[in-house]
């Protein structure tokens, strides 16, 4: 039967669905979801009490935080996406997945990537770019597996028995195309070794590419695939068609076109060109319309079955997920308005916003989808509706505690940072005052996160018992008519025809995202205007370069920014506002997105070497009340000079003006600078053995940050 | 082209992006809400609900 209700001629074919692969992805979703949330609450407690870092380098906040975000986004949500997509895709197209072997390679390849992340990030093997930390061999593996997914996905479309491509599949197509573009462009890096690479972009360019990627990872990994899943599973659960199919078409094209422009709102008030910032802000505000269009379309699909929302766990989780989607997508554009962003950026308000989306929208929608799929795939009834209800309320209360505590913390931080008295001085000149003030909120957040984790464990148990009580039957044989000319609609409207041409549809989706990407990125990539060099700004010395890599390894950028915004209170607190030319040798940029600790853009020369030495040994020796972990291993581990020449050489390739002589003599130069720092430290009683330890390289870098321009006579 | 981009301060580029969006938006909104398409979209919206009752034998 056709979607228009007519019976057509043609060959009646027998087929079955590959549900085993869906089951595998569901199991992986549950396992990785638990891991991601356990990591989340671990780092939440580390912020509340630094002792939880346990003085072990592999589990410090800076190393676990990227693992948490990667696990939550790519492992938990990624596996859930694949489970939901493979389940719905087959049924919407009346076709088995293109190739069983590809499905299995996809599954095991993705799990291998996740395990690789878990084995590298705690060891500090990171590219140093948020949400894109994985090193280049894993980046290549991601590309390969994503292509396999795409082949399997589009191959299924080609073998479909339903002419019309349902709206959910449009969202999947946009996801596959855009994630591929984002990942490839942002992962352009030059390898130094198997575990180390430098971003091809530097400074402002790197920041723009990174946040174009970072924001659209949210858009096209955490939003569009889940909207596709919403358009399939909400009508299924409600047993009603989507409220407005026409609205879904408007929703799709508007969202895909607009979302891609919004990245620069992560860089407001930075040295990114003003036009790009404004563009990011305007399109972010425009996102209100399609986002709420989708949210309203989902919620109104439940019209007439609101009584079931009260009793059916599937609909209950979906209704709450859509509500949180509405709230998060209201808050996002709000935070993109420059005047609001000036208050909220770098504060805890942002993680609060992010988790309203990832927990409220992604986790709760996944819960609804799993409660729908598991009973069907294991031929069972939900083990306990009561447990599902307990999970629902535990997750809701936990999330509210999380979000509200972060709002309070964020606004408190911001007001304290910018408080200036009548004499024009900062009211809270010591940054630590603003940290100590919000530690109670970190405890509330950690408790809220724990409740969310407990809710997940409840679901894990409930679904396990559900599956255990059921049985997996042999794949049922289905029948449907093959597509042939009788299913074509020669007089249909243009968009209707387009919906039957998936490849052209995919190309148009690609064009839609390339318009915004091209307008934002190409000028920044090619224009010399944004990388004008200042004569006072020199490349890092070899030792400073080594120190910078340690800064990246330890994830310092996750708590410290490196960019001073042109605001009175920031200039008073830190020094000269940053200039684009300061970052031309920064591969990758290290501006950060959060100030758990103070900005470091002008930290060079601010304190003596001994201060940094003591601070890294135990931050509380020099800053009472600090929540920063200790970095004792920097005092034991030796500087790896063997790789230095290669690093310098790669930097040279990337355009950093090192001479061949400087590359050749880099090890000697680094050792000489280390001896200078050692001599200085010895004056304050430090042992001479420190000379070849990592702490010396890190001190060299910290003492260099922002000095060239910040301490120069060059005026703003 | 490169020279133009090297001195990029042309607001017409983002504005033209906005115009492209507005034109596309108007076009697909028009096509979507054309009266004669209502029937096919109503049927399309039923696809997720049809799959099992019609296909399982």
Q: Key features?
A:
A: mainly alpha; Cytochrome C Oxidase, Chain A; Cytochrome Bc1 Complex, Chain D, domain 2; 2 domains; two-stranded antiparallel ribbon; two-stranded antiparallel sheet; globular; B: 57 residues; mainly alpha
Structural write-up:
Chain A has 716 residues and is mainly alpha-helical. Chain A folds into 2 domains: 18-488 and 495-520, Cytochrome C Oxidase, Chain A (Up-down Bundle); 542-710, Cytochrome c-like domain (Cytochrome Bc1 Complex, Chain D, domain 2), CATH 1.10.760.10. Chain A contains 26 helices and 4 strands. In chain A, the strands form 2 sheets. Chain A has a two-stranded antiparallel ribbon with strand order 1-4. In chain A, strands 2-3 form a two-stranded antiparallel ribbon. In chain A, helix 3 (100-120) packs antiparallel against helix 4 (136-158) and helix 5 packs parallel to helix 8. The termini of chain A are far apart. The model of chain A is unreliable at 1-7 (pLDDT under 50). Chain B is an all-alpha fold and 57 residues long. Chain B contains 4 helices and no strands. Chain B has helices spanning 2-6, 12-33, 38-44, 47-55. Chain B starts with a helix and ends with a helix. At the A-B interface, helix 2, helix 7, helix 8, strand 4 and helix 17 of A face helix 1, helix 2, helix 3 and helix 4 of B.
